[in-house]
Amino acid sequence: MKRLLLVLTSTFPRWQQDTDPPFVLDLCKRLLNKYDIHVLCPHASGAETAELYNGISVARFRYFFEKLQTLAYQGGILNKLREKRWRYILVPFFLIAEILATARLLRRQRFVVINAHWLIPQGFAAICAKKLTGSAVPIICTLHGGDIFSLDMPVLKAVKRFVLSQTSAVVVVSQAMRTKVLTLGVEHSRIHVIPMGVDLKTTFIPSKITRQQKSLLFVGRLVEKKGLRYLIEAMPMIVKKHPEACLTVVGHGPEEPAIMQLINSLRLNDAVTMLGALENSRLPAVYQSAEIVVFPSIVDAQGDTEGFGLVAVEALGCECAVVASDLPPVHDIIVNGKTGLFVEQKNAQQIAAQVIYLLDNPACRKTLAADGRQYVLQRYDWDLTAKKYNDLFESLL
User: Which of 141, 166, 364, 374 has the most CB atoms in a 10 Å sphere around its CB?
Assistant: First the structure.
């Protein structure tokens, strides 16, 4: 009989063909060979409250009137709060509902491990539920970026320190996050760097289909920290040198109206195509048709930034050349001049210069793409990530 694993998360597909990132689901699927997995996540209008999803038992807790349950999904909790400040009213209801739902599960089932994705609220909810029930189950908290790089107000810093002090192990997705967690007083031995994985063997792979010439691609949520505006500002310089160059943008988010206004003001309607959010199954073909993928991420006004940069791994898996902002979390993926090219964050001129260089030098572009695929294949395939999680769970049991 398999042992029971409880996963707490606020990012999980609400239904089949959802457009939200599937990385927690993908990890769970690869742990099913050793564990019976129960996922607890917030409810959303139109989603089932309980179902068997790809062999995983999923429970979705209600926290407010159904139509107003808009705190999670489609960009994440932090971005939802920034988008509409009235959603702060939902926070205490969300947290209490998650604690009670977790406590109910702990009373009913004998879980051997809790894996809480995100420090706040899931990590905090897991600890509160454990104390309410008197459970001795170990908690592994997986941090993804926003929960450690932002939320720096004194009260929330104290909450983060408390949560980190109560967990059996802390998983971070990049070396830069490990450095940040160390500043919060966590011992070296309790921190494990395990990035989320990508299916680099059957899904995000090169294609024999000819790529669209001089095609650029951006994939990501349209939020400030993704830095899309700086890529848009670089496009007039790129188009001036390469009039056929075109940019495809995949994603949605609160920055979309401002991005559309910027495109119109720079008269780039013929050079930029906004596709909106796409089903995850369609993403490989989008990468495979592009020559260059640009990740112009920044540190935003709240101090939030990338935790790792999973989409860069997806792009390299499909043998795209990559241009990315020179930010510490991205250093795990991009080796400047070997697996991609770095630019200074918030610098449209540098973005334009590097893109133009790659468009002018197809041999360099292809070498970067091929070397980049081999680099990520050896480090970030899901099989490697799942093994590291399995090893961590076993070490605690």
Answer: 141
Domain(s) of CATH 3.40.50.2000: residues in the chain: 3-197+381-396, 215-377
Q: Can you tell me the distance from the alpha carbon of 69 to that of 71, in angstroms, rounded to the nearest whole number?
A: 6
Correct CATH for 215-377 of 3.30.470.20, 3.40.50.150, 3.40.50.620, 3.40.50.2000? 3.40.50.2000
Phi, psi of 315 (to 5 degrees): -65, -45
pTM above the 0.70 mark? yes
Neighbouring residues of 296: CB distance < 8 A, sequence distance ≥ 6:
218, 226, 227, 228, 230, 231, 324, 325, 343, 345, 351
User: Domain spanning 3-197+381-396 has what CATH number?
Assistant: 3.40.50.2000
Over residues 13-49, the pLDDT tens digits come to 999 989 888 999 999 999 999 999 999 999 999 999 9
- Burial class of residue 199, CB neighbours in 10 A (0-12, 13-18, 19+): middle
